[in-house]
Amino acid sequence: MNDKYTRRDFIGKAAVTGLALYGMSFAGCKSGFSRTLAQGPRERRANGLKKGVFVARGSSDPAKLTRSAVDAAGGMGKLVKRGDIVVVKPNIGWDRSPEQAANTNPAVVAALVAMALEAGAKEVKVFDRSCNSDRRTYKRSGIAAAAEKAGAKVSFVDESRYVSVTIPGARALKEWMLNRDALECNVFINVPILKDHGATRMTAGMKNLMGIAGGERGAWHVGELDQRIADVQLAIKPDLVVIDAFRILTAHGPQGGSLDDVKELKTIAVSTDIVAADAYAAKLFGVDPKDIKHIRIAEEMGLGSMKPVSLKEINV
Amino acid sequence: MIRFRRITQLVSLFLFLLFLTFTVYPLILPGEVVNFYVQLSPLEAIATWLNTGRFITMFLYSAGLIALTLVFGRFFCGWICPMGITLDATDRALRPSHGDDSKEPLRWKRAKYGVLIATLFAAYFEANLAGWLDPLSIITRTYSQVVLPSVEFLSHLFFRGLYPIPVAGPLAERAHSLLKATAFAPQQQMFHGMAATALIFLAITLLVYLNRRFWCRFLCPLGALLALVSRVSLFKRVVDADRCVKCNKCVKNCRMGAILEGGTQDYLGECIECFTCQSVCPKDAVSFRAAPKGAAAATARVNLSRRGFLAATGLGLAAVPMVRLSTGLRQRGVIRPPGAGDIDRFMQTCVRCGACLRVCPTNGLQASWFENGVEGLWSPELIPRIGYCEFNCTLCGQICPSGAIKKMDEKTKQLTIIGLAAVDHNRCIPWTREENCIVCEEHCPVPQKAIRLMPATVTNALGEKIEIKRPYIVKTECIGCGICETKCPVSGPAAIRVAGAMPQERKRKSVGQSGISSLLPDAFGAWKATEAARTFEQDKLFDFINGGAEIYYEYGFTRAANREYAKGEETVLIDVYEMAGAESAFGIFSYEQAYGGEDCGAGDSCSYSSGQLVFRQGAYYVKVNYDGASKEKPIVEDFARRISELIGDKTAPPSVLSILPAGADAKKATLVAGPLTIRGFYPMGDADWAGFKKGVRGLFYADAQGVGMTIRFADDAAVNAAAAALDKVLAGLGFKKAASAETGGAVYKNESVVITAAAPYKGPDGWLLTLRVK
Question: Which candidate, A117, A89, A258, places its Cα nearest to that of A181?
Fold first, then answer.
């Protein structure tokens, strides 16, 4: 016998390592370990941002508008602390390009990622549960590339990320599979695009949170869609809502496709109050927020107020 | 040499699997690369050629294989074929000590020639057996539908199992997401014929217990074809008879049973150049080289007997009706991949490799089993309840090795109609439960929406009157992608289902935002539509206005739509006609409104009389009818104004009005576009004497001198030709012609009518001919 490391040795060691890993994997599958991590709703941490709705408009640079609006509310430093895990949740629902205004503007997402990292965040995660194939939507929306360039961790949501959550106070959506990353983060920034929607007339911040839900979301649309949209807010409680109204989709929403339906408003509005943010968005869209059922329900449930404490509009 | 062959085999299998693995979005390797292996098959090349009557140039690689086979013999089977390589591996694993492999329980080497002949014979009669029997199709199908999805499934389990474990978890997650983004299908694929495909392959591998490479020896039609070619190949196995000691080691070890007892003679065409005989020969008597003269004497032929040949052709012929008379294929409304075109062409060119199934990002493409008849076996169909055809995706056309699924750019694909959706009112939620659900409408990817929502007021179980939205299909917009059926939240069969369209046609250019259906939205303020808009395409106007449609065709008609709106007891009915252009719209307006009405404000011109308002704007001609007790004019004017806004900008008056003589009332002038409209001036029969079909137009009008008609021609040649033709037409109607001193033109008279024609003169934008009648 010699001391040569033979092929047989190599195969043997590889097999043992593989078996060990596989055994661990098997144990992981069967232990229910992942399921024991299931949470209650996410709790919101107090922050130093000003109350009210802060609006920036006029510039042709969505990133600049985003920065101005957030700065007007007190700045990202008031929200994100050193070492925080931050989730920036855009709408990446559809296989459409930024010009078609069916997904959040990539420059807005990138600006938020950059600001969070500047404020000391340890990691910024960007994800959504797409309606079309996520491989396509992440790419065509331009969001994956822009957010990654700004330093975010962009990932497709693996089905193992969903955990079952009971939502106290919910009226229709008492329990559902929700994204663990959304539940576990220190700061959750909701960044929807403002657009038309067949069922709810318009969609902005509250409806965008459907993207953190797993399971068969189609069932939400039946009957009490508006109530379910309001209920899911209780589970996540976003710290900041950033309404992307740089381009809005005025008809044939939520996925549009025709540039005839796109209107450029060059407006970004931020608020810590999701009801106030959506109510402002509704007005931008040209409808009375009282006519939007999920906004009305959310106010009724005490999730916020359609009349903001203050409204500050700045021209950039 | 054996080692070199094994390395080549490993590389070949690796490349084959690499190509197939990466036959997924985002298609890192181009489509022309990943479908390379199937295109190597000369069998598919010839079979599709016989099938369709033309050589499919995508199979050009197979000509290269034939050329190489002419030089090196049947090396493909021994060195390159992924099926052969897989069988070598499974043979070795299942039966490590094979014993004397020259003993064949079935002396059936010639059977494969029978399979080949039957396949090609059936192909000539357009029954595509080659796709089922070609080894490259079988192996591509097996790996893409069975092996890769299984490997991915186990990998997902493995990685997800590691997730909760410290240290290993994050690493596993990273590796997992990298694989998911590049090499794995976007979602776990499942195929309903998976087990059957697996069992068939298992059966092929188990044949090793009869003989190694049983498939290649006895059955493979591609092997048979290459064997035929290799009979005349340059390189051959050559045995040095002086050295051979007739130990029969080579005979027993030949995996193809290609060597005759004694070792010096071969069966012609059976050797796959694996070099095993050379390596086991104790005397180094075997070599592979350009065969010396007289080598043919050292071979035995494997020939089909005449009886065998006839039996094979008979089988091939018998297969034709079995395959082609299969029911289901043309009846079931099967959805084929976009680019399948026409069902016969598709069935003739599809090689059943299943690469499209792997590349389909939604898993909606499935291999038919027997539900579409024998002919449909393993051909791809879209099952929308499993997955839909992604609007922006053109992958299946990019990777199809035979062009059965045509390669299309994204725009063309988005206009290709593969099916049509229909709502099942017995299952659809807003119909059965008085609850809202708009999932299908929301997901419809057509920018103008092929699924739209109609408001309806219903009484729910609690006795409350509520307004709900019910989906309906716009046939001219639907392309049959099936996402509505995929996403329909009704459990069990979807409440909206898509039936396949064959042949797949191109959608007419989307009508667009300024198009006709968008002019009739679901509501105008408090007025709600009572039903879906009805649209009448160009050839269907008679269904809409029976009697009177001809005049629309004469002016140039594209399509029409109408819709009723109600508010309480009052109703408004709107008809919108999309004409061939602004001049056509002016024409029909001028024709129908010649007797005048009150002026009104909408559009380019507008006319109102007793409950009906009519206006034209751009290419549109719109009628608004009111029925109810209120004061009607403000209501119809309001509707007209809103529709006018939807149409958009107003247009300039048609240029033909410039030929109107001074003194004639432009509002009462009527466009002349052919024999029907000329009747308003004087009936002149059906002859197109002026060239109206080529676009000549005129006006007839009334002024101080009575009734006149002026026609505009492009140049003096055209006007003179028309004047000459007019002479003949009027002569045929009994008119006598005389020169007119007064006008310098002509006078035509019969018993009661005098028509005068002025000499043609040059007017604005052309030459004019003016006629008057008394």
Answer: A89
| Domains within chain A, CATH numbers bracketed | 7-315 (3.40.50.11440)
List the beta bridge partners of residue A268: A56, A244
B680-683 long-range Cβ contacts below 8 angstroms, 24+ apart = B680/B591, B680/B594, B681/B707, B681/B709, B681/B771, B681/B773, B682/B753, B682/B755, B682/B773
Q: Please, where are the H alpha helices in B559-668? A: 582-592, 632-647
CB B16 within 8 A of CB B148: no
Reduce the DSSP state of residue B470 to 3 states and report it: strand
Which residue out of B433, B442, B451 would a mutagenesis test of the A interface target, given it has the greatest number of A Cβ atoms within 10 Å? B442
Chain A interface includes B749 (CB < 8 A): no
ipTM given for this complex: 0.83
Task: Sort A106 into a burial class: Cβ within 10 Å, 0-12 / 13-18 / 19+.
Answer: buried
Angle CA B354–B360–B364, to nearest 5? 95
Cβ pair A103, A90 in contact under 8 A: yes
Which long-range CB contacts under 8 A does B93-96 form with residues at least 24 apart?
A: B94/B205, B94/B206, B94/B208, B94/B209, B95/B208, B95/B209, B95/B212
Q: Which helix (H) or strand (E) covers residue A57, if one does?
A: strand A53-57
Ordered DSSP codes for B272-341: ----HHHHH-TT--EEEEEPPTTGGGGEE-----HHHHHHHHHHHHHHHHHHHT-SSTTTS-PBPPTT--
CA nearest neighbour of B453 among B533, B559, B541: B533
Residue B234 in tokens? 């340059």
- Which of B402, B565, B577, B528 has its CA nearest to residue B47? B402
How distant is the Cα of B709 from the closest Cα of chain A, in angstroms?
A: 43
User: Is residue B439 within 8 angstroms of chain A, CB to CB?
Assistant: yes
B68 neighbors B75 (Cβ within 8 angstroms): yes
pLDDT digits (tens, 9 = 90+) for B640-659: 988 988 887 777 888 888 88
- What's the rounded mean pLDDT across residues A139-158? 94
Judge whether B507 and B415 are in contact, CB under 8 Å. yes
pLDDT over threshold 80, residue B193? yes
Query: Which pTM value belongs to this model?
Result: 0.73
